[in-house]
Amino acid sequence: MSVDKATVARIAHLARIGVGEDELEPLASELSGILNWIEQLNEVDTDAVPPMASVHDEALRWRADVINDGGKQADVVANAPDGDQNNDGAFFTVPKVIE
Amino acid sequence: MSNLIEGATGQWEVVIGLEVHAQVTSQAKLFSGAATAFGAEANSQVSLVDAGMPGMLPVINEVAIEQAVRSGLGLNAKINTYSVFDRKNYFYADLPQGYQISQYLQPIVGEGVVTVNLEDGSSRDIGVERLHLEQDAGKSIHDRHPTKTYIDLNRSGVALMEIVSKPDMRSAEEAGAYVRKVRAILRYLGTCDGNMEEGSMRADVNVSVRHPGDDLGTRAEIKNVNSIRFMQQAIHYETTRQIDILEDGGTIAQETRLFDAQTGTTRPMRSKEEAHDYRYFPDPDLLPLEFSDEFVEAIRATLPELPDDKKQRYMADLGLSEHDAQVLLAERDIALFFEAVATGRDAKVAANWVQGDFFALLGRAELDVADSPISGDQLGGLIDLITDGTISGKIAKDVLEMMFESGQDAGVIVEEKGLKQVSDTGALEGEIDKVIAANGDKVAEFQGGKVKVLGWFVGQIMQATKGKANPQMVNQLVREKLKP
Fold first, then answer.
1. Cross-chain Cβ contact A97/B282 below 8 Å
2. Cβ B140–A97 below 8 Å, yes or no?
3. Considering the domain B425-482 in this protein, what is its CATH number?
4. Chain-chain contact of A66 with B33 (C-beta, under 8 angstroms)
5. Is A95 helix (H, G, I), strand (E, B) or coil?
C-alpha cells in the first residue's frame, strides 16, 4: 500500500499538523515504507486467532458510581489562557467559534 | 393512513432515522469520579481525566454499564456481552481530549424494537439498530463575550447512550411518537431523566426523500435537535427542501445541517464539512468490556413494568379504555400517581378524577405530577368520602381545590369546613317544606304535568343547603312531597 502527496496533506490537516509543501513528498515515501513493512504481517494466517487487546492477561477494571473527583476548578483552568482575566469565573476561553 | 406527499413529479415518501443521545442517570461520569449534576458552577465538576490532561487514564463506571444494559433490555434489544471502546477523532474547542471515547464496530447493545403509538390509535414497530456508550463533550458559550467563546467542561465525560434507529419512520408524527416512546421507556427504567430542556436528551435527525419503492435517497443529518416540536418542524422543512431540489433536477448533498428555531429552517453546518473522517480506532487505554450472562439476567430480574405491559394490564385488568390507559401511562410519574389513587378503588372512577379535575388543577398551577401538592393516596381518600356518602361529588370538586391549596387530607377539610353531606331526612324536609310553601305556582306546574320542575326544586334546595344536601335523597323527598 502506498500513500500519495494528497493523502499526506489530508491526514496532516485532519490531525492539525502543519506540513509544508516541500515535506509532503518525503513524508509520503516514508509513510508508504512503514505501511509496506507492516503489510508483511498479512502473510501470517490469523484466521483462527482472536484479536489481542492487550499484552496483559487481565479484564477491564470497573469503578463504583461514586463522586470522588472534581471540585478543582482553579487547578483545571490554571494553565488556560485568560483563566483569571474574565469576570465570569473559571471558564476556558477560545477565539469565538460560531456556527 | 398515507404519509405520501404529492409532488409535481409524482408521490414522495420521506424516510427518517434518528440518533437519540440520552444522558445516563448516574452520580459520576463515564470514566471519572466527577459529578454529573446539572447547573453547577462552570468547571467545578471536572476531573483531570475530563479535562484531557496528559497521562490521565479512563476507568469505567459500573453503573453506566448497568444502565446501558437495562436500557437495551427495555428496548427489546440484543445485549452484547463483549464490546469495544474506540476513539472518534475530531478537533473542537469543547473536546479537550481531541477524541471522544465511543463504541463503533462492537457496541454494548445490538438490534431491538420499539412499538410506537400514533394519534389515530394505531401502532407501528420501529427498529433499533444499536445502542452504544460514549462520552459527552463540554459546552461552548458564545454569548458572554464579544470576541471569545467560553468553554465549560462540566458535561465533558458525562455518560451518554446513543440509540440509533433504523430508517423506519415515514412521517414527522412517527418520529415524534418514537422519541416520546423511547423517552418514556428510559424514564420507566430510570436510566435517563429525558429532560430535553436541560440537554439530557437530544436527537440527530436523518432525513431523505424518495419515490415509493425506490432505493433510499441521499440523506441530510440535522444535528442536536433538543425538542420534539423542533424535530418535527425540521423534518417538515427538510422534506420540502429536498423535494424542491429534486423536482428542479438537482441532487441532495450528503451533509450535516443545523436547525434554526427562530426561522424554522435548516442550514448547512460549516465546520464539520471535513469532519466525517473520524479515524476510529480501539482506545488503547481501555480493554474490551466483557460481562457474563448472569450479570445481564440479574439486571433483567429488576426491570419494572414497562409502558406496553402496563397498557395491557390497565385495559384487561382495570377495564380502562385504550385512550385512558395511554394518557395515564405516557409518563411514569402519572402512572405511579394513578396507581396510588386506583389501588383498592374503582379504577375508572380513579382515572376520571386524575385526568379530569386533578389534571386541570395541575395545569392551572403549571406543575408536573411529581410536584403535586397532594399525593395519590390523598386523592384516593377524597374518592372514598364520595363512595361512602360523606360528601357529594359536587362538593368533592371544591374539596379537591382546597386540598390542592393546603396539602391537607380530604377528611380534615370536610370536617373543618362542615361540608358533610346532609342525609338527615328531618333537616332536609324542613328545607323542602320552606321552598314548597314559597313557590305555590311551581307546585301547580308540577302537578299539572310539567315534571321538569322537579329539577328546579332540587336546585333550590341544594342552593339553600350550600350543596351539602344528598342530591338523591332530596330528589326522592321532593318527589314524594309534590305528589298531589
1. no
2. yes
3. 1.10.10.410
4. yes
5. strand
Chain A residues touching B84 at Cβ < 8 A? 53
Contact A76 B141 (CB under 8 A): no
Spell out the per-residue pLDDT of chain B, length 484, in tens: 468 888 888 899 999 999 999 999 999 999 999 999 998 999 999 999 999 999 999 999 999 999 999 999 999 999 999 999 999 999 889 999 999 999 999 999 999 999 998 888 888 999 999 999 999 999 999 888 888 899 999 999 999 999 999 999 999 999 999 999 999 999 999 999 999 988 899 999 999 999 999 999 999 999 999 999 999 999 999 999 999 999 999 999 888 899 999 999 999 886 555 556 899 999 999 999 999 999 999 999 999 999 999 999 999 999 999 989 989 998 889 999 999 999 999 999 999 999 999 999 999 999 989 899 999 999 999 999 888 888 888 888 989 999 999 999 988 888 888 778 776 777 778 888 888 888 888 888 888 888 788 888 888 888 887 777 777 778 888 888 877 6
Considering only CA atoms, which of B55, B59, B65, B84 is closest in space to residue B24?
Answer: B65
- For residue A88, the chain B residue with the least C-alpha distance is B144
CA distance B284 to B301: 34
User: Cell triple for residue B170?
Assistant: 415515514
Kindly determine whether residue B42 and residue A70, on different chains, have CB atoms separated by under 8 Å: no
Helix axes B172-189, B307-316, angle to 10 degrees: 90
Chain A residues with CB-CB distance to B86 below 8 A: none
Residue A83 is part of which domain span?
A: 69-99
Judged by a CB distance cut-off of 8 A, whether residue A89 touches chain B is: yes
Domains of chain B by residue range: 19-205+273-298, 305-417, 425-482
- Residue A54 included in any domain: no
Please, what sign has the CA dihedral across residues B185, B190, B195, B196? negative
